[in-house]
């Protein structure tokens, strides 16, 4: 696996890692209620379960954040895993939109809809900043 990325990619990888770590800390502390708004409504609505989902996803986000920053030798794998994570949590954003749930300043349907378009940006950011996008496209072209 070619691990080469330029300094711009590395900077954006570290920034994304820091933002993920902060978001994870938010799940565990100061934004805990806000993140409950993104737990999909098709999951059990028991408050203890919803809190478990928020807390466990916060731990996962902290792990991803720190991995993005410190696991440089495995950054391609981490980038792919983070992109998959972003795909897996997208139903929570869709649920917030379809159920009209206010959180994080997303207090209109228009704002919640616009937020949906940022998830692909995060996916691409994770793949590009870690060199995973180049790895995946090169891998597919050589087969």
Largest sheet at a glance? none
> What do the pLDDT scores average to?
93
Unreliable spans are: none
DSSP strand content: under 5%
Structural class: mainly alpha
Brief description of this entry?
The chain has 143 residues and is mostly helical. The chain is built from seven helices and no strands.
Task: Describe this protein's structure.
- α1 crosses α6 (118-129) and α4 (75-98) runs antiparallel to α5 (109-116).
- The chain has 7 helices and no strands.
- The radius of gyration is 16 Å and the shape is globular.
- It is mainly alpha-helical and 143 residues long.
- The protein has helices at 7-28, 32-36, 47-70, 75-98, 109-116, 118-129, 132-141.
- It is 73% helix and 0% strand.
Task: Give me some keywords for this one.
single chain; 143 residues; mainly alpha; 7 helices; globular
Topology:
Elements (H helix, E strand, L loop, with lengths): L6 H22 L3 H5 L10 H24 L4 H24 L10 H8 L1 H12 L2 H10 L2
Helix pairs in contact: 1-3, 1-6, 4-5, 4-6
